[in-house]
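Homework help board

Subject: predicted structure for assignment chain

Our instructor gave us this sequence and asked us to write out the predicted structure in token form, then describe one feature. I got the tokens but I'm not sure how to describe them. Can anyone check?
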Amino acid sequence: MTVSKKIWKICFSFVFLFLFFVAAATLTQQAAAQKIHLVIAADTNAEGGVGAFVKIDQHKIKQLFESNVPDSQLKITMIAAEEMRGSNILAAIDSLESSNEDTIVFYYSGHGGFDRQKQEQFLQLKLGHLYRPELLKHIQQKQPRLSVLLTDCCNVQIDVMEAAQERQSEVITFSKEISPLFATLFFHCKGVVDITSSKLGEYSGCDMKKNRGSCFTYPFVDLMKVNKDNVDMDWDKFVTELAAKVNDAFKESYPNGCRGQMTQTLAAFSYPGKQEQPKPEDNNNPSTEEKKGYRFGVRAVAHQSGGMRMLEIIENSPAQRSGLEIGDVILEINGKAINTEKEYSDAIDASEKMMHVKLINIRDGKTITPTIELGW
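My token output:
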């Protein structure tokens, strides 16, 4: 190798290292400006002996965030047990002083159920109930970078009128830096994380043997602690491991089952990187073999000013390839105004392969009309 080539190689290495450190510093500065707004609603007065486990859950979640995020970047709102009603919870979310680069995490532990008539899960509070979609809607109205909804409650079908009735520390050390896993899951992601402790028709168990809390919360906290320095764990890997640990925790606490239930199955409705599930085949849809990849790849919610705001855009989907971004608001699909989730879903299902969309571009606020080639 000639002298000039050696010099060129050395210079190239220095330039590469310089650019690497500049990029790393930029990400660090960006993360330092972001905040996590943690809202904890733990119904410690929950009947049936559940309240004692809820207290453990509340402490574990609070300590987890306090020990992994600097106090300058963590804002915690605690809903008092005696104030456990839907209006108070929504008011607490609405009053958060968050920016569109922040993360909002809502955590609930207590009773819950699934409304047979409305076909929606709800939190069974001390006073009344709060439906999950309404809760997520208020979080999204704050337009955060990442919305995280974690609920540890049962998901069995009951009459909603039953839920409408009224029902009667250790030292924390703050970390100097955000742990790598927290940075990956809560600061570097965009979109929506929507997870509850059990699938439809299941109860959520408690650790009856070792009093570690609920069978969802303590595995969640333990998994976060064990992997706090794991830079390779994303939401997909985390949810996969968490689902296995939740089921193991339930089986350990209830070796003979609970009310005929032998397992507890985590329900992960949404998270960044989640693979879109194909819809059941019918006479109007292509066969499973013909469905390659994603049809559109966007999860959206009704926007307060009209249209549907994009909450999550799946990687390698037609929406992502078309340059759409989280926050864009869909106004029309194929010339028809879209204002509800049903209208949105029906319009996509009925669309030809080339779908014409009218939307507001979040980057400059302008209205654009792209044509998107759907996946199938």
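Reply (TA_rk): Your tokens look well-formed. For the description, you could write something like this. DSSP finds ten helices and 17 strands in the chain. That's the kind of observation they're looking for.
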